[in-house]
């Protein structure tokens, strides 16, 4: 089995991200060293439970498992789901040294991580991400959260997992759309800091999307390595970690504008947001005009949403989209921070993006929809 391990080096809170085919089937071997007694509680969603829970149960062997399956979807990142989760864990007599397994995509990982952060002032948890997006981004780095009516992820904690098991085999169960949405985050890593990885994606992206497990393992590993490196430098996002938000300021505005509905998946918004970030960077003279064209052409060749024209339904005008960006967590002293690029593989953080350039870029992108 092609198996990779990336360590997230955070001193006493260091942990491994293990990546490979069939890891869920050997969960017992993977997590036993973490368990003071042979039992775990598993938080999952109803969709994942229907398709994958029995594989996990079998993989846990003699380790006793109880589970809570919540409705799938963003609405589950709520106060009421958090309450249900922690009360359920207390009901299960979870002790301080026991381990929670978050078995699902980003919603379950974020909610489970936050529940683990607050239960008995913090218990350990293991992430077993079942979406590509969760494998390459949300399961790694310890950001946990639920949503507020004021915005996404506004209530949460930094709480690192004790272990992450990224089973490449589960990616075979994803729809093409969900797979490509996760791939948007993979492209982001090449763009923000590794031009050679972006070259590799241009060459191998199509075969990887078709299902090549070795290519998928490499892409997940390289993404996780890059994330681990950034998180190790800046765990609580005082500086460099913001680079991981390349494309996200645009994405958050577009997600809000589309009502967090399936008109636009998060990873799709990230891909479109990356293309817009490169377009703005070129207009501001940070990078050459070839760079946004190359970004867009890779996304298009993968069959991904690339432009605002690819989002079905109406969108608000450019100034309303810029207002929606103002809700972003990256606002500092009232100024929006953007991730701009000098080239493919070379992103940087700046709060110096003139509003008129944003508006004209978005206006042109909106006009192209007609
Ligand atoms: N998803 C961005 C981060 O973990 O910082």
Structural class: alpha/beta
What fraction strand?
A: 15-25%
- Measured distance between first and last alpha carbons: 49 Å
Sequence of strands across the biggest β-sheet: 1-2-9-6-5-3-4
For the largest beta-sheet, the strand count, sense and barrel status come to: 7 strands, mixed
Structure annotation, total helices: 13
Ligand kinds: glycine
Low-confidence stretches: none
**Cα-atom radius of gyration:** 20 Å
Broad shape: globular
CATH fold naming of the largest domain: Dehydroquinate synthase-like, alpha domain
- Compute the average pLDDT: 95
- By DSSP, the count of extended strands is 13
Per CATH, the superfamily of the largest domain is: Dehydroquinate synthase-like - alpha domain
CATH class of the largest domain: Mainly Alpha
CATH architecture group name of the largest domain: Up-down Bundle
What is the string of helix and strand elements?
Answer: EEHEHEHEHEHEEEHHHHHHHEEEEH
Structural features, described:
With 370 residues, the protein is α/β, with parallel strands linked by helices. Helix 6 runs parallel beside helix 10 (266-283) and helix 9 (248-257) crosses helix 12. The chain is globular and about 60 Å long. It is 46% helix and 19% strand. The protein contains 13 helices and 13 strands. It has a seven-stranded mixed beta sheet with strand order 1-2-9-6-5-3-4, with helices on both faces. A two-stranded antiparallel ribbon has the order 7-8. It has two domains: 3-171, 3-Layer(aba) Sandwich (Rossmann fold); 176-367, Dehydroquinate synthase-like, alpha domain (Up-down Bundle), CATH 1.20.1090.10. It has helices spanning 27-31, 46-60, 79-91, 106-118, 132-138, 176-193, 195-210, 213-233, 248-257, 266-283, 290-301, 318-325, 355-367, and strands spanning 3-8, 15-20, 39-45, 64-70, 99-104, 124-129, 143-148, 151-158, 163-167, 331-332, 335-336, 338-343, 346-350. Glycine (GLY) binds next to loops.
